[in-house]
Amino acid sequence: xxxxxxxxxxxxxxxxxxxxxxxxxxxxxxxxxxxxxxxxxxxxxxxxxxxxxxxxxxxxxxxxxxxxxxxxxxxxxxxxxxxxxxxxxxxxxxxxxxxxxxxxxxxxxxxxxxxxxxxxxxxxxxxxxxxxxxxxxxxxxxxxxxxxxxxxxxxxxxxxxxxxxxxxxxxxxxxxxxxxxxxxxxxxxxxxxxxxxxxxxxxxxxxxxxxxxxxxxxxxxxxxxxxxxxxxxxxxxxxxxxxxxxxxxxxxxxxxxxxxxxxxxxxxxxxxxxxxxxxxxxxxxxxxxxxxxxxxxxxxxxxxxxxxxxxxxxxxxxxxxxxxxxxxxxxxxxxxxxxxxxxxxxxxxxxxxxxxxxxxxxxxxxxxxxxxxxxxxxxxxxxxxxxxxxxxxxxxxxxxxxxxxxxxxxxxxxxxxxxxxxxxxxxxxxxxxxxxxxxxxxxxxxxxxxxxxxxxxxxxxxxxxxxxxxxxxxxxxxxxxxxxxxxxxxxxxxxxxxxxxxxxxxx
Length: 507
Prior knowledge:
By secondary structure, the chain is mainly alpha-helical. It has a single domain (17-468), classed as Amino acid/polyamine transporter I. It is built from 19 helices and 2 strands. The chain has helices at residues 17-28, 37-43, 48-75, 82-89, 96-107, 112-125, 131-155, 157-187, 190-193, 213-225, 243-272, 275-278, 285-294, 296-330, 338-341, 351-366, 371-402, 414-433, 446-471; strands at 474-482, 488-496. The chain has a two-stranded antiparallel ribbon. Helix 1 (17-28) crosses helix 8 (157-187) and helix 5 runs antiparallel to helix 14 (296-330). The protein is globular. The model is unreliable at 501-507 (pLDDT under 50).
């Protein structure tokens, strides 16, 4: 492989270090940090030492993943992220990984969970207490926010980038402000704070309830998923100023900020909430924290507003990334109406590509379906993504062996690569070896369903590139065309073979 040169995007290069840092922050920090900590604490038997060890491992996972992708991005500095990495690493059979990954991602590109969470917590923040009112209106509010964000993305991408950078700063400041509560309780006398300190050095290594290898592993998985989303910044490398240099500075800074926020907030949980109470919490642990600090009614409003604000920023970033990823997939030209969906009409932004996640999400919102179906759809998308992560990170070793003369500007360590490959392998084999469908009764196992969908995507590739050309006696010829908006896409044309049955050359 020769070194892949950077490709300028019709959208221009308009993101600097600060924008990239805040985009990573916005993408990773959602509602997870306010929900999973009590579950992790219970999984590790109430041991503060094991609790923080889990968060250190989870934090390292985001760093390792981002370093692996940053090395790939320094060698392949183009928009598309996982898509472009896989298609360059696994270029044989011809176009297979392009089609399988592309069709799957387009089909499952929705943000239904975050949109619903935003609508629900915005109503809580506005002091709506009636559960029937919340049940009736959280979806319409989520839909309205989805449309608002979509319109902003269509009209001015640069405005949205600046907005998400500004709100990202606010998110970090608010999270650090929350952590100051715990630090205040730790250093100030209880007569000033009116909150006792529940974290004592003598109990730091003490295991209060049972802990097993299985429960500790479960805790690590919960922590890792709280860092999910670190990879999507590479979807927009073509819009980053000097992408290699920017990512070299922005990646570790973003991960440091996120880990700092998470560690300090978790420290606050242990300081403010008694251990025996923390072990029993089944609801959002953040709610318990805010109720202890601000009182029951005000605490709920403050937390709800913070979650709605945090998830709202996440929705903006995810929609932005999905639209760019879809556009890159349609540029390959193998899907119906590719030229339309890859274009930037009419505002110089990828409106057609954005329509797909908006329509899919809107349909989910409109259909009266049990909540476990939404979670099931999320698992259908997340499970194969872990497979693709492992393939991409293992691909670093393939590229190094294939092209030893290329020296990456950013280099992942052997530990980074090994961690990501083995974790992805674990996530792939776990649901297959020990399938658990207790959460999705009445639905087929999501792991097997995901694999079946991938096989169907592979069947689409097989018919398009192998069966149909052979049966109807034509070759597929690929050419690059430039649209009126400057976007370059691939166009596939049929070249008829000689009627006398001459030699067929498969692509």
